[in-house]
């Protein structure tokens, strides 16, 4: 069921979203080659808890799957060919030339915020740098369509059209989602689709829009060793950006926008 949030609920989500944004801002200033992904995770958890919030992802398990293993960390840190759900580890060292997707969620006042950014570490090829830049832009293309009266797949189509215009692959089996008092709510928000299809967007819907875009020909992310982490089928790099937004009548309100200058 898709829920329409009241302005009181949106204000609570605005606070959670700001915590997520400030967490990612902090990590953006600190991330560097030589760090382990576990170091990033510990920094994020400490900051989130200092804001009287709790990490949304820590111990998360999908509902309806009693055999699911709860997620063991605050962040998802996914490097290069890892699309999503990379588990932080003291053994995973970030290297020069990596691209690192950091996905973060925070829960405060009973409501979640959720956002992701892909960071470039040192020098990368022009091809990889463009992938990161245009994945970020594909997110903004989707957000510009998140207006009351449009249809859900107008968002999806805008993301897909921008990504495919550069020859990139859209990861089709990983999607965005509704968000609110639950981390994952209805509706699913695909990153591909036909315009003017899907449910009609209404003011007060809250969505986490998150393009996952890859070089190469991968259309699916595949599980590695049966665990959480999902990688591209062909081992080519993937980038990931995400914002929590509120559907409005004029333009969507972004709840997880950066505070960095």
From TrEMBL:
Its EC number is 3.4.11.18. It catalyses: Release of N-terminal amino acids, preferentially methionine, from peptides and arylamides. Residues 11-248 form the Peptidase M24 domain. Binds 2 divalent metal cations per subunit. Has a high-affinity and a low affinity metal-binding site. The true nature of the physiological cofactor is under debate. The enzyme is active with cobalt, zinc, manganese or divalent iron ions. Most likely, methionine aminopeptidases function as mononuclear Fe(2+)-metalloproteases under physiological conditions, and the catalytically relevant metal-binding site has been assigned to the histidine-containing high-affinity site. Removes the N-terminal methionine from nascent proteins. The N-terminal methionine is often cleaved when the second residue in the primary sequence is small and uncharged (Met-Ala-, Cys, Gly, Pro, Ser, Thr, or Val). Requires deformylation of the N(alpha)-formylated initiator methionine before it can be hydrolyzed. Its cofactor is Co(2+); Zn(2+); Mn(2+); Fe(2+). This is Methionine aminopeptidase. A divalent metal cation 1 binds at residues 103, 114, 242. InterPro entries: Creatinase/aminopeptidase-like, Pept_M24, Pept_M24_MAP, Pept_M24A_MAP1. The lineage of its organism: Bacteria, Pseudomonadati, Chlorobiota, Chlorobiia, Chlorobiales. The keyword Protease applies. Pfam families: Peptidase_M24. One of its GO terms (molecular function) is initiator methionyl aminopeptidase activity. GO terms for cellular component: cytosol. Gene3D superfamilies: Creatinase/methionine aminopeptidase superfamily. It comes from Chlorobium luteolum (strain DSM 273 / BCRC 81028 / 2530) (Pelodictyon luteolum).
